[in-house]
Amino acid sequence: MPVSRYYDVKRDEKGERYLEPYVTGFLLLRLPLLNKGTAFTEEERRALGLEGLLPPHVNTLEEQKERVYRRYRLQTSPLEKHIYLRNLQDRNEVLFYALVVDHLEEMLPILYTPTVGEAVREFSHIYRYPRGFTASTKNIDHLEEALQNVPLEEVRLIVATDSSAILGIGDQGYGGMAISIGKLTLYTAAGGVGPDKTLPVELDVGTDREDLLKDPLYLGVRHRRLRGEEYFRFLDRFVEAVRRRYPKALIQWEDFAKETAFQVLERYRKVVPSFNDDIQGTGAVALAGVLSACRLKGERLSEQVVVVYGAGAGGIGVAWALLEGMKREGLSEEEAKARVLVLDSKGLLVEGRAMEDYKRPYAQRPERLQGWRFAGAYPNLLETIQNARATVLLGLSGQAGSFTEPVARAMLENTPSPVIFPLSNPTSATEALPDDLIYWTDGRALVAAGSPFPPVGFKGRVIPVGQGNNAFIFPGLGLGAVLSRAREVTDGMVLEAAYALYDYTREHFPHLLYPPVARLREVSPYVAARVMQRALEEGVAEGEVQGLSLEGLLEFVKSRFWEPRYLPYRPAPVI
Ligand SMILES: NC(=O)c1ccc[n+]([C@@H]2O[C@H](COP(=O)([O-])OP(=O)(O)OC[C@H]3O[C@@H](n4cnc5c(N)ncnc54)[C@H](O)[C@@H]3O)[C@@H](O)[C@H]2O)c1
Ligand SMILES: O=C(O)C[C@H](O)C(=O)O
Ligand SMILES: [Mn+2]
């Protein structure tokens, strides 16, 4: 079957790839996966009915990049830049990715965190072209038919959100589609997954935001969110329809509120290859960064006392991964648990306290608090840091400014170089600004943040701020799972992604907590290869990669890596 009902990719006599479009003329210029714009050659223009429809001069891809980059630079705000790039993506995908790959570090904050947060908020107001697939309460009863309308036959990667907890900005209704689009842009730009193998999905189950429901321009369904059984019936249908239409696809669950995130992950992880980016991707990226910090300090992870601030999808995922990391260094479950302290909005999680089920495994035994001094019913952040003598502090609370100067100074009381990662996104939700943390700790804190921040100048030093964002994990994890045809994404594969990122950083950037994002295109294939290796070891891989060594797997990944280049076009033979 062709890749798409509008084209196929074939090989010529010499084995070179070419594209065979099934549409010609003006329509060809309107399909972003096919359109080369002014780069169509004269021969192609003649053969494909494009003569007279384009300017006479034929551009190279390089020239086109030059043109669009100049316009890009003239956009006056991050959101305008985002809109500009998204329009380019919807016009000509090869050109879009060629440009993004050339300027990855510059454009990631525009296409992804933090600007994507604004794009989510404004989604209905900046909407132009359709992209992705919407499952909504309007089409859920005939979802299988609706999925047939997606003109791609080889979708392998789906990012799906119900928009209930986008970044740290909460329920965003239909706007969450922008997150699915942004995450998949990274899969292609950083993970080498062809854009025609990806499908962004919005699961529009409604919104509880009155302002959105009342906004005449709002584009989602206008009712409150489905809950309980109705909600899960909706999701069951979605998963079933995906399984039928795209049996080889992996689903990445994104930005589900904590009330459902854990249930959704568990309900489907053995039904369809899937993982939750906020729980597992974030857990892995935090573990990798804390391991790097320990290496820089010349200490072991199992010696640290970790405080995780925030007990939602991200916080619990991070607590899980750090606990696993400590156990790997030889601690018992009990020993590890006493070293990973988790707080929610009511304070430290302690057994016996009222809390949701997913938090229970991370609650401290009451004995752990023996001799502690605190004022309220449960220790707050500062009290926990002081009493437990925390050495690592990780923020996943979405509470801007919650890592105050006294908090940072308290960390410094416990260790000469505290590890402090305000991981909440977007920038407006960060627990602390990195330069504040560095000043408050006299340059001694090891700092990484979820959103991108410029390096901090301090007493003649230039201190880079690592970006502890699951962007370092999910493209490699998803790619590795798909390329190894993994039946499921196991916890072992998630943790392997963390150690792979740690190893990559140690080898290539031994003085940093995370690699620069400009290196994502190297990081992701390496993470993918390690994930594949682990999938093989665990016996969940079903693909053609059986028996390959790590080097072999890396070669395999690289041979599949999609590059933004124009293929020559040959018209379909007339039958
Ligand atoms: N850096 C990354 O890669 C990354 C990944 C995932 C999430 N995050 C960030 O983490 C934040 C939370 O995301 P999530 O998906 O876990 O959301 P969530 O809604 O699942 O959880 C938020 C949690 O924050 C905690 N919280 C709220 N108010 C608090 C308060 N006053 N004090 C202490 N804790 C409080 C609660 O425990 C709540 O469960 C967001 O800002 C998100 O951007 C970052
Ligand atoms: O989207 C990001 O930047 C990371 C993470 O998935 C989040 O929800 O904050
Ligand atoms: Mn997320």
TrEMBL record:
Keyword NAD belongs to the record: yes
Coiled-coil blocks: none
Active site: 112 (proton donor), 183 (proton acceptor)
InterPro entries found in the cross-reference section: Aminoacid_DH-like_N_sf, Malic_enzyme_CS, Malic_N_dom, Malic_N_dom_sf, Malic_NAD-bd, Malic_OxRdtase, NAD(P)-bd_dom_sf
GO molecular function: malic enzyme activity; metal ion binding; NAD binding; oxidoreductase activity, acting on the CH-OH group of donors, NAD or NADP as acceptor
Record domain Malic enzyme NAD-binding: where: 279-536
Required co-factors: Mg(2+); Mn(2+)
GO biological process: malate metabolic process
Pfam families (alphabetical): malic, Malic_M
Residues binding (S)-malate, per UniProt: 425, 469
Sorted UniProt keywords: Metal-binding, NAD
SUPFAM superfamilies: Aminoacid dehydrogenase-like, N-terminal domain, NAD(P)-binding Rossmann-fold domains
Cofactor mode of binding and number, as noted: Divalent metal cations. Prefers magnesium or manganese.
Chain positions recorded as a divalent metal cation binding sites: 254-255, 278
Malic enzyme N-terminal domain ranges (all copies): 89-269
NCBIfam families, per the entry: PRK13529.1
Assigned protein family: Belongs to the malic enzymes family.
Record-given protein name: Malate dehydrogenase (Oxaloacetate-decarboxylating)
Organism the protein comes from: Thermus arciformis
